[in-house]
Design goal:
The chain starts with 11 loop residues before the first helix and ends in a 9-residue tail after the last strand. It has helices spanning about 10-25, 40-55, 60-70; strands at about 30-35, 75-80. It is built from 3 helices and 2 strands; from the N terminus they run αβααβ. The longest helix has 15 residues, at about 10-25. The protein is mainly alpha-helical. It has a two-stranded parallel sheet with strand order 1-2. It has one domain.
Length: about 90
């Protein structure tokens, strides 16, 4: 699946992570998300913020551990795509 539009601020990143989460955690599919939003990489930044928030709070740490052990699934795979230099203007 791919979600794309040139318009910013319409929820592409949010919708992408929601769909990936539903497919991965609820439906049991192995999902890989590729963030092609160069150079912002909004999904990667969102994941970093989420991880930082969880790691700084003991309650969130326990909840995350409980969630991932109860569903026996790892975090959704996320990679950043970077265009070749000749494609960047």
């Amino acid at each position: 699946m791919a979600f794309s539009t040139q318009k910013g601020g319409v929820g592409k990143s949010t919708f992408t992570m929601l769909m990936a989460s539903i497919l991965h955690y609820r439906m049991g599919y192995n999902v890989a998300v590729i963030d092609c939003d160069y150079p912002q990489h909004s999904l990667a930044l969102q994941r970093e913020r989420d991880l930082k928030t969880v790691m700084q709070n003991e309650i969130y740490k326990r909840l995350a551990l409980k969630q991932f052990t109860s569903i026996n699934k790892k975090y959704t795979q996320l990679s950043n795509a970077k265009p070749k230099k000749q494609w960047i203007k």
